Amino acid sequence: MADIQSRLREFVLGELVYCDDPENFGDQADLLEAGLDSLGIMRLIMFAEREFDVTLPDADIEPDTVRTLDALTRWIETHRQ
Question: The pTM is what?
């Protein structure tokens, strides 16, 4: 789980959300409030499916499944099993 979360963090903070203090961006920080928009969510889902060899159902895409790095990691872990 830690590997997934660290790779997600690197992608999100490197590609999708600007953060002037990435070391203090917590795993419970609200990605939507930090600037993750709908295009970013789609890029994030495509990244996760490619990187973690998982299919994330469109029906599960809700703000709560992508709101934090913790929530996103749990969603991916659920579909990897």
Answer: 0.88
Q: Which residues contact 24 (CB under 8 A, 6 or more apart)?
A: none
Question: pLDDT of 8-36, one tens digit each?
Answer: 999 999 999 998 888 889 999 999 999 99
Give CA–CA dist 34/38, Å, rounded: 13
CB 75 within 8 A of CB 56: yes
Q: How far from the centroid of its chain's Cα atoms is residue 71's Cα?
A: 8
Q: Determine the Cα–Cα distance for residues 80 and 48; give it in Å rounded to an integer.
A: 11
Count of CB atoms situated within 10 Å of the CB of 72: 24
Residue length of the chain: 81
Contact 77, 48 (CB under 8 A): no
